[in-house]
Amino acid sequence: MTEINNTSLPIGVFDSGVGGLTVLKAIREELPQENLVYLGDTARLPYGTKSPASIERYAIQATARLQEQGIKLLVVACNTASAVALDALRRQMEPVPVIGVVEPGAMAAVAARPGGAHLVLATEATVRLGAYREAILARDADAQVREQSCEMLVALAEEGWVVGVIATAIVRRYLDEAREDSFVPDSIILGCTHFPLLRATIVAVAGEGVAVVDSAGTTAAVVRQVLDANAILNDTEKPGRVQLLATDGVTRFARVGGFFLGRSLTADDIELVDL
Amino acid sequence: MTEINNTSLPIGVFDSGVGGLTVLKAIREELPQENLVYLGDTARLPYGTKSPASIERYAIQATARLQEQGIKLLVVACNTASAVALDALRRQMEPVPVIGVVEPGAMAAVAARPGGAHLVLATEATVRLGAYREAILARDADAQVREQSCEMLVALAEEGWVVGVIATAIVRRYLDEAREDSFVPDSIILGCTHFPLLRATIVAVAGEGVAVVDSAGTTAAVVRQVLDANAILNDTEKPGRVQLLATDGVTRFARVGGFFLGRSLTADDIELVDL
């Protein structure tokens, strides 16, 4: 318990790769005084097409590295790992609080469109587990939920092709598939941390009246609430430090991660860790 | 040495995922009497965006599984692993002969267009190592080589979107990038085992007069030659057995693998192995 009472300990942010940097960025904006350590498990990415057993094993191995270093809170910034492994990670990290991104994403969608028809864009693994469906229906029994797996959107975000005719055609194809059987969404949930990069294209294709929500902002707000509730907010005026760790390919991490963080990174900004 | 003299032992075919099934299929057509065992390291795919050290380690772990089971020849059906880890795999497998796909691909391109301008479409890791450039120039000092990394083509093939406006637009974008500085290819090498699925689209975008070559057919021919040279061709009339192994996600392996093999697979056709 001593450890989690040390308010200057960093918040750990874990993702299968670089996508979770969108969540890191939102936490940084919400809580600029907090120290942050981000771990991208780039050696084993993507998680979204793997089996639940492998995803859980990888997530536990990776977050053990953050646990050793000492963190006061863990954010599981990967939708797939949040959907598959949150309970296992909570048992492992106890007494450190653990926040996933599925619940905040569901909260944001229900708040935006009460009783609405929600379309969840996510990875295969997240869709297979129906984690968003469960989280939304637990909050809003009148909601309708459709989940659509969209692996090509991950590739688009990683390639940096986030606007233009190709991105538009791919988004349109997935939305058309999801709209079969007269399902008309009034909210679209970006259920993978890669997808906020494609927000402008998704908004344009979805058209007016559709709320496009992601987990990042709501997750940052939940982080603040949990830190506050546990009396472990970092009580300082100084801007916090940000440490970036990856399990493989720091050069690629820097290049692709720059898109997500919205500023350029070099390989020297990333520390390679071996699991 | 006893083992490799057992002609009924299977040929091992190793890939990071399902793409190498295009090579398995070509070997099956060339040598229908041979027993084949295919291992897709789906738990750690894709290799193409990872570091050379990780790729080598993964390839050695995965092929050790085939070595234990007993094989008379190893085909490294993954371009990335062939580019990065072929020497290490040869040391590990000795005295079992090991064939990669880069050399056969280079042979096919040089044969198709002597003194030609070759465009290699491949993964990031294969491009970074310049393996095709080296293999082509060693055979044909007059050749010109340009290498282009095309991660989106991997995603297209896995999603099964191999023809149509989206596939065409993506292929056109990569070919336009490659043609900058007035480089005019007269051969295109499909330097990733995923890309033969996109052959029709690539041929259509490339236009007349461009030879589109892949490794699969030439690799199968080289396999025959090496078996023959070592006097380990399976001397029987019976059709050989095919065994499919994967390190994760047999359901996805079956679904995506079916595209590559050109026939439908079910999860029961795939054996899950733990490395």
Describe the structure.
- 2 copies of one chain form a homodimer.
- Chain A has 275 residues and is of the alpha/beta class.
- Chain A folds into 2 domains: 2-100 and 217-272, 3-Layer(aba) Sandwich (Rossmann fold); 103-215, Rossmann fold.
- Helix content of chain A is 48%, strand content 16%.
- The first copy, chain A, contains 12 helices and 10 strands.
- Chain A has a 6-stranded parallel beta sheet with strand order 4-3-1-2-9-10, with helices on both faces. In chain A, strands 6-5-7-8 form a 4-stranded parallel beta sheet, sandwiched between helices.
- At the A-B interface, helix 8 and helix 9 of A face helix 8 and helix 9 of B.
**How much of the residues of chain A is beta strand, in percent?**
15-25%
Task: Report mean pLDDT of chain A, rounded to a whole number.
Answer: 94
Shape of chain A: globular
Largest sheet of chain A: 6 strands, parallel
CATH topology of the largest domain in chain A: Rossmann fold
Descriptive terms for the model:
homodimer, 275 residues, alpha/beta, Rossmann fold, 2 domains, six-stranded parallel sheet, four-stranded parallel sheet, 10 strands, globular
Short summary of the structure?
Chain A contains twelve helices and ten strands. Chain A is α/β, with parallel strands linked by helices and 275 residues long.
SSE layout:
The structure is a homodimer of 275-residue chains.
Chain A: H1 2-5, E1 11-15, H2 21-30, E2 36-40, H3 52-69, E3 73-76, H4 79-93, E4 98-100, H5 102-112, E5 117-122, H6 124-129, H7 131-139, E6 144-149, H8 151-159, H9 165-178, E7 187-190, H10 199-206, E8 211-214, H11 215-229, E9 242-246, H12 250-261, E10 270-272
Parallel strand pairs in A: 1-2, 1-3, 2-9, 3-4, 5-6, 5-7, 7-8, 9-10
